[in-house]
Every structure is written in C-alpha cells, then in structure tokens.
UniProtKB/TrEMBL annotation:
Domain of life per record: Bacteria
Keyword Ion transport included in the entry's annotation: no
Biological pathway: Sulfur metabolism; glutathione biosynthesis; glutathione from L-cysteine and L-glutamate: step 1/2
Catalyzed reactions: L-cysteine + L-glutamate + ATP = gamma-L-glutamyl-L-cysteine + ADP + phosphate + H(+)
The protein, known as: Glutamate--cysteine ligase
Keyword entries, A-Z: ATP-binding, Glutathione biosynthesis, Ligase, Nucleotide-binding
EC number: 6.3.2.2
Annotated family: Belongs to the glutamate--cysteine ligase type 1 family. Type 1 subfamily.
Pfam family, one: Glu_cys_ligase
GO molecular function terms attached to this record: ATP binding; glutamate-cysteine ligase activity; metal ion binding
Cellular component terms (Gene Ontology): cytosol
Record-linked Gene3D superfamilies: 3.30.590.20
GO biological process, one term: glutathione biosynthetic process
Amino acid sequence: MTDLSSLRLARLRDHRELLGLTLRGIEKEGLRVDAQGRLARTPHPAQLGSALTNERITTDYSESLLELITGTHKDAASLIGELEDTHRYVQACLDDEVIWNQSMPALLPPEADIPIAYYGTSNTGTLKHVYRRGLAERYGKTMQCIAGVHYNFSLDDRLWQVLDLPGADDQARRSAGYIGLIRNFTRYSWLLMYLFGAAPALSREFLRGREHPLQSLDAQTLYLPYATSLRMSDLGYQNKAQSQLKLCYNDLSTFLQRLHAAVTQPWEPYRQIGTHRDGQWIQLNTNILQIENEYYSSIRPKRATRRGERPITALAERGVQYVEVRCLDIDPYAPVGITAATSRFVDAFLLFCAASDSPFFPVNGFCQHSADNFSVVVTEGRRPGLQLSREGAPIALRDWGRELLDRIAPYAQLLDETYGGDAYRQAMAAQAEKIDHPESTPSARLLDDMRSAGASFQEFTLAQSQAHARTLRGSPLPADQTAQYQEWARASMAEQQAIEAADDVDFDTYLARYMEAVQAPPTLPRV
C-alpha cells in the first residue's frame, strides 16, 4: 500500500460515521419466459404498473425484459431485502411465467418476433420506444436480450474532502474522485469478471448460425472451457461504431467532450439505414450514438436527470453523483440474481478503487492493457497459468488476484468496523477461496453442474429459474406490502396517463427539441 493510500485509509477510519452513509442500489434485469423456457411474448403485466413511470418495476430493451430497481440503501442487507421483496411481488403476478435467472437469453423466437418494449403514446414513451427500434437496427434484437445486474454506488460528498481530492470546490472534488475511482475500476475490473462471471455457456440458437469460436458442450449448448462471462465478450453488445470510442477517464471534461462528439456526429452506415421506414421512425438519428445511454461500458459516471434533461447536460452542470457498475452477471444460484455477500465485496472493491492512487492513463486517456486484461479474463479467465499484463509486464492472474485481495482487505475491515460484525471480511474470504480454487467460481460451478445433471444450458437454467420461482412464491409478501406495490402500480398508470394528456406538440417537434438540447459541455478545469 502506498503512502497516499495508507494516509487516505487512516482518514477514512477517522470518519467512519461518513462511511456509514454510503449508498448502493441495484437495477436487475431478467427475461420473462414461459413454462417451456421460451421468451414470453405477452405484454408487460398490468399488475406491474406502467413501464414508463413505475420507478421500481419497468422494462429494458424488450417488452419481455423486466428491470427491477431498488431505492438507495445504507447497508447491503436492506438492499438485497428490497430486491427480494420486489421479486416476490413480481413473481406472484406472472401466473405461469418465471424470471429467467441467467444473463444469456432463453430460447428466443425469430429476430422479427422479439417484442420491443412499449411505453404508451406520450412523446416521452415514444422516444424510448424509437430508441429501442434503433438498437434493433444497429445491433440486432437478439443481442439486446442479454441481461445483467447494474450496481449503483455513491460515497457521502464530504468523504471526497476527507480523501483530499484536488478541485476548486466540492463539486469538482467529487467529480474528480469518481473519475479516479473509474480509472482504478478499469485497471482492476478483470477481477470482478473472474470472481463473479457466471455466463460461460449459451444456447446454440442464440448465435443464429453466425461464425463463432465456441465449442460444443452438447447438441444444444456452446461454451468456452475457461470462460467466465461470454456476456461481456465480443459476442455481446458491440459494433464497429462503438469499438472506435475511446472515452477518456483522465478528467470529466474530456470524457464529456468525447461523449458529446459521439451523440452528435453521424456514422455513415447508420446514415444509410436512415431514420424512417414506411413512414415510421426506426432510429432517433444517424449518429454514432443515438443518445448517451447507448454507450456500452463496464462502468459509467452518473447523475440523476430531470424530466427531459440530457445526461450529458446534467453531468456538465452538476458533476458526477454516483457510479453505475454494469459488468456483473446474474448469479444463477441466487433467487434474485445477486447475494448480499457479492454486494459487500463490490462495496469494498469500489471503496478501494476510490481511495487508492489513481494515476492518469497514458495515450489519449485510454489504457489498452486494462482492456486486454478484461477481454482475456471473460473468455479464458480460469485457464491454468493465465498471464495478464500489469503496466506492460506479465503477471499471473492468481498472483495479481491475491495481491489485489490483500489490498482490498483493509477496506473490508474498515466497513466491518463501520457497520459492526464481520460480514465484509467473510465476503472477502469467499473470494480468496476462488483465487486459490478456480473450480469454485460460479462459471466453473455452472459448467460442472450442467455436466453432472446431463442437462443443456437451456434445460439447466429453466430448472433453476423454476426452482427460484417456487422459492419466491413460497414466501409471499405480507398483505400490507402487496397492497403498497399495487398502489405504486396504480399510481404509475395514472402518471402515464397524465403525461400523455399533457403533450402539446407532435413527436417530430418533441424529438427535434430533445436533440437540440445537447450542447457542447463547457471546458472544465483539469485537476
């Protein structure tokens, strides 16, 4: 541990009361499937309310892709508790359908028959729907059915001053702190893929006959023997336009300038597609990114937006508020896709990233070594003797993993001192076991369990998802909590209707105004 890191750790220990104000939240995706494990093509259930306005239960890309959203919590137990409650309510509303508890999709219908999420007739809802039509044109609907767990994390604003971050004011220090956290996350996020990657296999039909480097596990299943997360590999959500984006994480200003360029500069293949077909909108524009949310990355700097406000504007005006970790696979062994132990490890990992030295990246603000490490771990992270690149020098994954866990351990202990007990240190111990024994990682366990059961990826995941559904249904919510979810659903429907009634311009006018709202962010001082 460097002198600066040791000093910052000591300062954090002196301000444990502020650490106790750390907030975390989860957005968990999951496909609805029928009793045979096929993608459900039914509308978003009315009992779940409006997908446009229900803050707890919505849809992501597809009408069939649920997104369950928690509030922010000051501890991992209450966070997972809320996620469990929402799952219990949703599963009780699904009749014969279940939530597919895997990141890689269930059996999908033909591409044209995958239903795109619908958000009603308002301009806001139409924008969300047309954006998803654009994703279909650019990436294909199949890729949009991949699911994951997004983990939101924020420190109390006063901690950035405790950590002695540079900046002219509190907002500048906070933004510099989160951008520094992101740089370290980029350096070390391969560790999360090794420890928590849980998608080493997929249904053969997912690739729709495309060429691929995968091997056959059985007649219906493809896999890579040492993969951790095919979801995060080149098989996932990528294209040539996005592969050219190298958004700089050396400072917020440069990041926003490059993001602005991506959402305002046309891309010729998208220009050839056009924005309309048969008189209908098929994408919002022909730019590299239609909107900021299209940028695919394993972590994002975030700021809550006002209605109709662009994310880039919110970040430029009010700075970074929290980070969103996007690389976590759904845990197939957890009924809600993530455990409290995983949450606690991610907390400690992110605190380590925030408090540790975070030098600027070389060469235009992009670190190729980190990108290469991440890529090799998602496809062959459990390969015996695997070597990674640390600042250009080879190092064994096992050695670097042990070293990182040793560096994270003091932050886990500090969190235990903050919350009481030893839950964070127990979470650390579970991960150390995976470093020493790759067969205990979720990706290895999944392949072993499939082989032991003699089941294909589809068969095994359906059986697990049905078992999880029985668990959730076996502990229904108390009547008062069910009534609360029902009231939220009713209120969201009324809010959607009010939004639709308030529209006073046509969609073309609304969209033009929305796109014009993207102004080049001001040049912020580099720190």
